[in-house]
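ok trying again, last paste got cut off:
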Amino acid sequence: MPKEIKPKIELKPASIGVIISTYNNPEWLKKVLWGYSYQTVRPDEIIIADDGSRDDTRILIESFRERLPVKHVWHPDNGFQKCRILNMAILESTSDYLIFTDQDCIPRADFVETHLKYAGKGCFLSGGYLRLPMGLSREITEEDVSSSRSFSIRWLLDRGLPVNFKVTKLSSSRAFCSFMNFITPARATWNGCNSSGWREDMLTINGFNEEMQYGGQDREFGERLINLGLKTKQIRYSAILLHLDHSRPYKTPESISKNVAIRKNTRRKKIIETPSGIKQYLAGRN
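nice, full thing came through this time. structure:
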């Protein structure tokens, strides 16, 4: 008798959450939360990972509680501690599957739905974004987001977006987007503004490395997931964000240099679990 071949089953998440990192930019965070108010698939939870913002951010988040399932995870401002607050947000989450993004990234209406569609065991997803100039970033209103016209190529070009090939990321053609996901030379890496994976995998690698400052800390997180055995899946033309403009005062040559060395060590030694991560907080929770 021939051996029965069973179809491959890719398990889908029972629950999905979104973790949004933020620091002292309620104007941009408000635009991002508008985006999550008009999703085709509503996330089970939205956790704001707040790296020490002032009270105006807390007030903004409170104003969205009747519209969205938001949770506010905050610690005092003590310099750039994004990895630490992301670890606290992972611990606070209850969802099987987590999307990570930032305070400056407005999601298209199908953003959560797309991550859910492509999610599968044994991999993480790497999405894409279109960067906007400052003038357009400021101009976008809630009506522009709710109507989805802010994701229209023509609407953006009419308002001064430079013409280049990157605008094709906003294409509505699923066939084109699938083709571009396949042929793009860009590697599918863990990027902090648009990636997703299984919470249990994040706990296995002990979360984010809190020794790292700005510059490559998200990539290092993904490199340890790969060392764990996960595959990467490219969806940069399918799961799309509008990236609002902003400065980066926390970017320093010292932080970049330190993080480059940590990442080299992670890849060379195939490190899976960071020694400076989530587990340090677990004793106090038991």
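cool. Confidence is low (pLDDT under 50) at residues 1-9. The beta strands are 16-22, 45-50, 70-74, 97-102, 105-107, 123-131, 195-198, 231-243.
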